[in-house]
Amino acid sequence: MSKPAFSRAEPDARRQSLIEATARVLARDGATGASVRAIALEAGVSPGLVGHYFAGIDGLVAETYAAVGQQVHVALAAAVAAAGDDPRDRVAAYVTASFAPPIADRALFATWIAFWSLSAKPIIAARHDALYQSYRDDLEALLAACGLPAADRRLVAIAITALVDGLWLELCLSPGNFTPGEARVLAERQLESYFDRSAKSSR
């Protein structure tokens, strides 16, 4: 008996399969390869299902960004939980988790670059802003536990997020020339400088 052209599944499973297929297509083919047809073929479903479950291709990419961002959030939270109770150790764990698997991953890197390249589209830009705001909120809470003054937390969180993105990009682009250990050292030095300045200003 021949295999049907498209598989049948429950609505939630179909939706999730499209999100997972989108992440794979973005990782493999980049933003320019993320067409409705390519994603439907990857998921083994009819192209018409993309419009049924999402607001077109941009809506699907935005939801995929949210799903992949949540996977990163889970990895960061796990790193913080494993760091113990010391507030500074918890901040360091949150920051340096990006330099090890599953975040320091070539497929995730390719997918994330595709998200960024599509961020001129309003629905994807909105998802990006919400996602990065959630990361900064987490950082601000961790920094508050370290005693960083409220007036400093927002800008420090922005600076740390930019630092992590830059080191993560370099690590993924040039893994032979730049090591995870070096990325951790650089990030931890920068964190210490923020804590030192905060301590001096509070005297």
Question: What does this entry look like structurally?
Answer:
The chain is mainly alpha-helical and 203 residues long. The chain contains nine helices and no strands.
Task: List the main descriptive attributes of the protein structure presented here.
single chain; 203 residues; mainly alpha; Tetracycline Repressor, domain 2; disordered N terminus
State the end-to-end distance. Answer: 79 Å
CATH topology of the domain at 65-201, by name, is Tetracycline Repressor, domain 2
Q: Helical residue percent?
A: over 70%
CATH structural architecture of the domain at 65-201: Orthogonal Bundle
- The succession of helices and strands, N to C, reads HHHHHHHHH
The largest β sheet comes out as: none
**CATH domain class name of the domain at 65-201:** Mainly Alpha
Structure summary, number of beta strands: 0
Question: Which oligomerization state do the chains in this entry correspond to?
Answer: single chain
Keywords: DNA-binding, Repressor, Transcription, Transcription regulation
Domain HTH tetR-type: 12-72
InterPro entries: BetI_C (IPR039538), Homeodomain-like_sf (IPR009057), HTH-type_TetR-like_transc_reg (IPR050109), HTH_TetR (IPR001647), Tet_transcr_reg_TetR-rel_C_sf (IPR036271)
Organism: Sphingomonas echinoides
